[in-house]
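User: quick one, sequence for these tokens?
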């Protein structure tokens, strides 16, 4: 494994452990937000956690399930290793298989990027957005969304206890 791949694996491990150890408690959203806004850099396993290098603004109010949502991400100057990444929380914590991977960037204006995600579950949802800088700094923020079921734009919905629907 080359050096940058090893660094990326270390960062993913750090991201997972940091997020899982501070798993969201929706009764304590303010404390998680306060932790997100800390500007102190800390070092762990040769990687510097630098939360001040990223800021994220999400939508106000509820967001509809399955419809694209735009988040505005502002990064500090510096060379990124890889891409801006996004991971949605699931009932088991943060999981790359639950709406995770490279961010879908729909607009860019210098260091400000507008990314688009599609919420994958109903209810309170935390979305982790992170980037790794070439100087081994790891920047992450968590955005809290409330996802609601919405029939707007729905073409067809069929529920039959998990059995296939009628063929048309």
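Assistant:
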């Amino acid at each position: 494994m080359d050096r940058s791949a090893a660094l990326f694996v270390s960062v993913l491990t750090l991201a997972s452990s940091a997020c899982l150890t501070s798993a969201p408690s929706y009764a304590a959203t303010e404390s998680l937000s306060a932790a997100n806004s800390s500007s102190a850099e800390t070092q762990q396993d040769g990687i510097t956690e630098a939360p001040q290098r990223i800021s994220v603004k999400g939508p106000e109010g509820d967001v509809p399930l399955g419809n694209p949502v735009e988040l505005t991400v502002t990064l500090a100057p510096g060379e990124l290793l890889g891409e801006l990444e996004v991971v949605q929380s699931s009932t088991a914590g943060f999981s790359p298989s639950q709406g995770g991977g490279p961010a879908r960037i729909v607009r860019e204006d210098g260091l400000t990027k507008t990314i688009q995600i599609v919420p994958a579950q109903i209810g309170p949802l935390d979305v982790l957005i992170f980037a790794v800088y070439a100087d081994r700094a790891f920047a992450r923020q968590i955005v809290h969304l409330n996802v609601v079921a919405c029939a707007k734009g729905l073409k067809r919905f069929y529920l039959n206890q998990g059995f296939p629907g009628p063929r048309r």
